[in-house]
Amino acid sequence: MKPEGPLLKVSRGATIYSHEQVAHFSYKVIEGAVRLSRLLPDGRRQILEICLPQETFGMETSDAYSATAEAIGEVVLLRCPRACIAELQDERPETRQAMLSMLSRGMCAAQDHVAMLGHQSAKERLACYLLRLAVGHEDRRPCTIRLPMGRQDMADYLGLTIETTCRSLSDLKAGGIISTPDRHRIVIHDMAGLEAIAEGS
Amino acid sequence: MKPEGPLLKVSRGATIYSHEQVAHFSYKVIEGAVRLSRLLPDGRRQILEICLPQETFGMETSDAYSATAEAIGEVVLLRCPRACIAELQDERPETRQAMLSMLSRGMCAAQDHVAMLGHQSAKERLACYLLRLAVGHEDRRPCTIRLPMGRQDMADYLGLTIETTCRSLSDLKAGGIISTPDRHRIVIHDMAGLEAIAEGS
DNA sequence: CGGCATGTTGAAACGTTTCAACGAGAGTGG
DNA sequence: CCACTCTCGTTGAAACGTTTCAACATGCCG
To answer: What pTM did the predictor assign?
Structure first.
């Protein structure tokens, strides 16, 4: 993802690309967040991944995108033509390894997601997700995390309704595990407690 | 996956490799079926994928396997050292493309799985899965599919309990959509009906 | 023919969804 | 600046589907 094209600004809610459209570009998030989702035949929506800064998406190896990408809030992206990536790979073996490890990370994330949706309760899913957002300030101490997305996006990612998501959040608040100073900010007071919940109470 | 090492026979239930173990080999299923699963911290199990003949698995691009692979019944495998694959990729650009498209297919399958677990009911999940097994004899006409795995494996793949899986199966039988001559065989009588159910009644 | 693993069904308990109402905050125009 | 409105978030109560626990059926192998 070296070739630094001009940075691309995308406004809130805009579609970056659509599911099954021909894939010309790959992207990297510089600022903001992007959701990768699929619309199910009956109109329900499943968010497959929420990409945060420094993460890449649209690294399809088939011809068409496997999901729709939309901006959550204002987003700044780095965009790179696929042809350019292919070329780089032919020339420099080391970029090949980088590409594979990116794909690998994506695959692993998808598998984590499957495991979460398959067998966890609403509270467990929420706890898992908050922990994922909290990596970096792993340590103890009340740590604050910024939620780039709204409740509906969280719900669609977790495979829950918006109401259940809210209620689970309220449960965690009631248990003193977290607090929510405003709707886009969550403070984790009891990291160990959160981890315990994430792993099946 | 060209380098045809000797075919490897694995007996029913045996572990081919374990989650987080160092990944030395990649595999291709020749005969039988393999389940890729993860054990959750609380003992529950999620099956991430069920690999049928001609499918590959263990194509990790990181150093460790991202799941455990076990034989469902007797299995015949083709095994290939990762080092050998890497070498091939350096020498022949066309194998690189093949490798990427395999990874891509795996990624897409994982995303399908996420979408299924996120928002579908038990009956819808089962219908989806049966349809996936039925690709090939897509056409009309009562088509018979062989189930390589038992009910518990299906349940763990679908993110359901074994009882719910059974009941959903019984529902489909009661609706005249399918019949089950024996536990490892399912006959689809009404393909269109099954598709309708899979897409959210 | 037993014995054991596997599959099936029933009834109650549980958690999530649904539908509905209400609350809080941001932006707009009077 | 306030009232208005619109979106988003939160809570309540009933309905629904899945899980749980239990019993029973079936098939397979010694």
So the answer is: 0.93
